[in-house]
Amino acid sequence: MTSALAAHDDAAAVRAFGSGEQFRSAVTAGNAPCISLSDPAHDWVVVNKLRPLAPVDYAPASVRASSLRATSGSVSMRPEVADALDRMSADLTAGGAGTIGVNNAYRSYGLQQVTYSRFVRSEGVAGADAGSARPGHSEHQSGLAVDVVACSDGCGSLGAFGSTAQSNWIVQHAWEYGFIVRYEKGATPTTGYMPEPWHLRFIGVELAKAYHDGGFHTLEEFFGLPAAPDYAH
C-alpha cells in the first residue's frame, strides 16, 4: 500500500485494504493514518465548504480533454477521469441512452474566482453559495469533477439534464466507472448545494462501488465527516 501511494496508484492503494468498503471502514475508524482525505492529489479527497483544497490554489499535475463534445472552454480533467468518462459515454450510447457532452470540468483557482464573482453579482452571496463554490472550495479545481449535458443534434443545458434518459442511465451506472452524482436531491443540508444531477465526481471504481453498495448519498456521510452546509466565515 505504501508503494502504491508513492506511485500515486490510488486504485492499488484501495485494493491493498481488501476492497473499497474496507478502505472506507479503516479511514472512518481512524485506522488508516497514512490516508489523508485532505490531500488533493488523491481520488478520495473531500472538498466542501468546510474543507478547502490545500493549498488553496492547488492545480492537478496534468489535465486533458475527454473525447466528448465540449460546450465550454473548460473541459479538461485528470487523465484517469477522462479515460473513465470516455468509457462511460461509449457504454451509455451503446445502451441506447443517447449521448452526453462536457459542459465544465477543471477550473483553476483564478477561473473559479471569476465564476463565483459572476454568480455573486447576479444572485447575491447567498444565491451564489447555493450553486457555486468559493475559490479554493470547488471540486472542479481538483480536476476530479465534470459537469455533463445531454446531446443529440445539439447539447442541452445543465438545468435540463436531470429529466433525460442520459441522467437516468448515469444514476444507475456511473458508479461502475468510478463516478458518483455528488450533489443529490435531499442532500443540501449536508452539502450546502442545490441538487446538481449533472455534477459527477470521480472517486475511483473501488470506492464508487462501496458508495453505491452502501446506499450512501454524500461523500461526507461515506467518510464519516461533518455536514458542511455553509462556510466557516
> Strand order within the widest sheet?
2-4-5-7-6
**Category from helices, strands and their pairing:** alpha+beta
Q: What's the count of strands?
A: 7
Largest sheet: 5 strands, mixed
Low-pLDDT runs of 5+ residues are: none
* Count of individual helical segments: 10
Mean pLDDT level? 97
Helix percent band? 25-40%
Cα radius of gyration in angstroms = 17 Å
**Large-scale geometry:** globular
Give the termini separation: 37 Å
User: What quaternary form is this?
Assistant: single chain
Strand content: 5-15%
Secondary-structure element string: HHHEEEHEHHEHEHEHH
Entry summary:
By secondary structure, this protein is α+β, with helices and mostly antiparallel strands. 38% of the residues lie in helices and 13% in strands.
Provide the fold topology.
Elements: H1 2-6, H2 10-15, H3 20-28, E1 64-65, E2 69-70, E3 76-77, H4 79-94, E4 99-104, H5 109-131, H6 139-142, E5 145-151, H7 165-173, E6 179-183, H8 188-191, E7 196-202, H9 205-213, H10 219-222
Parallel strand pairs: 2-4
Antiparallel strand pairs: 1-3, 4-5, 5-7, 6-7
Helix pairs in contact: 3-9
Structural description of this entry:
This protein has 233 residues and is an alpha+beta fold. The chain has helices spanning 2-6, 10-15, 20-28, 79-94, 109-131, 139-142, 165-173, 188-191, 205-213, 219-222; strands at 64-65, 69-70, 76-77, 99-104, 145-151, 179-183, 196-202. The strands form 2 sheets. Strands 2-4-5-7-6 form a 5-stranded mixed β-sheet. A two-stranded antiparallel ribbon has the order 1-3. It is globular. The model has no long low-confidence stretch (mean pLDDT 97).
